[in-house]
Design a protein that fits this description.
alpha/beta, 9-stranded parallel β-sheet, 5-stranded antiparallel β-sheet, globular, disordered N terminus
Length: 530
């Protein structure tokens, strides 16, 4: 994943504000003020039974609409290293506002770009991309991941923590390594490869470090997913001796000395396989509702599909057997980076259909879209309509139920009005993240709703039923015959009833559904409002 970026803080805020970024979900938090006509003061709401078809709200589409937010090279957030925390927070809020305003429902935030942390960690140092110096804590101290999770959930967005499992230093990082960085503490585990430092996947201690880091985040933060990108063994670079082979002689010799029988390439793949399988099992053991997903390179191998006979062989160069992970169900979702047009020979649709055919365990397939490829005035430009066409192609494939955009920068600047067009067309209606029934059994029971009139406005009270605890309340409102949907955090116990500022109309019907952490939905509790 890569793109150039130079977006100022003021530009981010300006775009977010000009495009109506503040999501309606924020209006729905406890204590939200709303205007209530005087005539409603003494009236009482009436329960609306599901047997009354006039009370049944429209079905909400199930579709994952994610976006990658890259911190490496300060591509998306923060806009530059060393931002004061107040500005870094403001950028993050503007980013999440914009994501919600477009109609997205998930953000994949990069929190470990290179054996560092954009969150408070006792295992790895603070990231240079956050504070400007690796190991330096932000001042005043704050925890960006904790903040991001809370702010995302307040806007009805899932928050997935994105980790790079093996990179130790990226060329854009110019400062010195912190004393607690793995390359300082255990230099024998880290190799110089081309322009990068890379942890050796063949070292058991490296796999243990990545597992420890990921599980630490899973335990301490209320994240909705763990995400890995396409970097396993590194993309080939020329070494000083002219070779492109990864320098893992130490771990390879130790493997052979211990009685290992695999060929070297198979051994390398087995090292990555072991990490993937173990991560999936251990994450599910700790918190069974936290999704585990990976975004591999677009091709498993040249020749698969058979129409594509050339291109990078990720199986043989990155030692990433991503098809195996998908077939074995070692992921809850796969997001191969299908950065192709819909109308070219190696088309988006051709690749998507091949990946869909590999989905033996019926996991989620949410392809990666190269939204940052949208340009104007370039010889190889993509225009905004290409992304809409890819979303439509995705919907035409029955075994695919969403997509992930790379990256947030194209939405922050609204390049070629791509975000605006998505919101006006394919994302005009809110979508609910698809269910993941294999992750956790149970279904939340229907909540109980009531009407409350207060001096600061009217609200609907919400009480959870017994059974599986909800993650979200899906609130559907009917105003002048038109329905709209908002997702709010289930920690809320009341929803302030909004009033249209343009027509002064207010909803006459409200329906609330409980949605649990893996997307299972309860029955609907509906009220006719006074």
């Amino acid at each position: 994943m890569s793109a150039s970026r130079a977006v100022s803080f003021s530009r981010i805020i300006a775009v977010a504000a000009s495009l109506g970024a503040m999501p309606a979900a924020l209006m729905a938090q406890p204590g939200a003020r709303s205007v209530s006509p005087a005539a409603a003061a003494a009236a009482a709401a009436a329960p609306c039974p599901q047997s009354d078809t006039a009370c049944v709200p429209p079905r909400v589409a199930r579709e994952f609409r994610g976006v990658w937010v890259a911190s490496v090279r300060n591509l998306d957030w923060p806009s530059r290293p060393g931002l004061p925390p107040s500005l870094a927070k403001a950028e993050l809020i503007a980013l999440l506002d914009r994501a919600a305003a477009i109609g997205l429902n998930a953000v994949l935030l990069q929190v470990r770009p290179a054996a560092d942390a954009l969150y408070e960690s006792k295992i790895e140092p603070w990231s240079e991309y956050l504070t400007g110096k690796q190991g330096l804590a932000p001042a005043p101290l704050w925890d960006p991941l904790q903040f991001a999770v809370a702010q995302a959930h307040a806007r009805g967005l899932e928050l997935h923590a994105w980790f790079n499992p093996y990179r130790a230093k990226e060329p854009s990082a110019k400062g010195p390594l912190a004393s607690n960085h793995i390359a300082k503490r255990h230099p024998e585990l880290v190799k110089k490869y081309g322009t990068q430092l890379w942890m050796d996947p063949g070292e058991p201690a490296v796999r243990a470090q990545t597992l420890r880091v990921v599980l630490d985040v899973v335990k301490r933060y209320d994240i909705d997913g763990v995400h890995l990108d396409d970097y396993f063994y590194p993309y080939p670079e020329r070494r000083p001796n002219g070779s492109t082979d990864f320098p893992d002689e130490r771990s390879w010799k130790a493997y052979k000395k211990g009685g290992g029988k695999l060929a070297r390439d198979d051994w390398r793949r087995s090292n990555v396989d072991e990490l993937i399988e173990t991560l999936h099992k251990e994450i599910a053991k700790e918190k069974p509702w936290v999704k585990f997903g990976i975004s591999p390179f677009q091709l498993w191998r040249p020749g698969y599909p058979e129409q594509i006979t050339t291109g990078l062989d990720a199986f043989a160069t990155l030692y990433a057997d991503s098809r195996k992970w998908f077939v074995n169900g070692w992921v809850d979702y796969l997001s191969p980076q299908l950065y192709r047009r819909v109308d070219e020979e190696r088309s988006y649709g051709l690749l998507m259909r091949w990946w869909a055919a590999q989905n033996a365990r019926q996991r989620h397939l949410w392809p990666g879209l190269y939204t940052s490829g949208v340009r104007t005035g370039a010889a190889t430009e993509w225009r905004r309509g290409e992304i809409v066409a890819q979303v439509l192609a995705t919907r035409d494939q029955p075994a695919v139920d969403g997509e992930v955009h790379f990256s947030m920068e194209s939405f922050l600047t609204d390049r070629d009005s791509v975000g605006t067009l998505l919101r006006r067309t394919v994302y005009a209606q809110q979508a609910l993240v698809p269910e993941s029934p294999w992750m956790m059994p149970g279904t939340p029971t229907t909540p109980t709703t009531g009407f409350k009139h207060g001096a600061d406005g009217d609200s609907v009270t919400i009480v959870a039923g017994t059974g599986t605890a909800p993650r979200w309340w899906m609130v559907q409102l009917r105003t002048d015959g038109a329905w709209e949907t908002h997702m709010i955090d289930a920690a809320a116990r009341a929803y302030g009833i909004p009033v249209s500022f343009s027509t002064k109309a207010r909803p006459d019907l409200i329906a609330v559904t409980a949605v649990d952490r893996v997307g299972n939905a309860s029955g609907v509790s509906a009220l006719r409002l006074p």
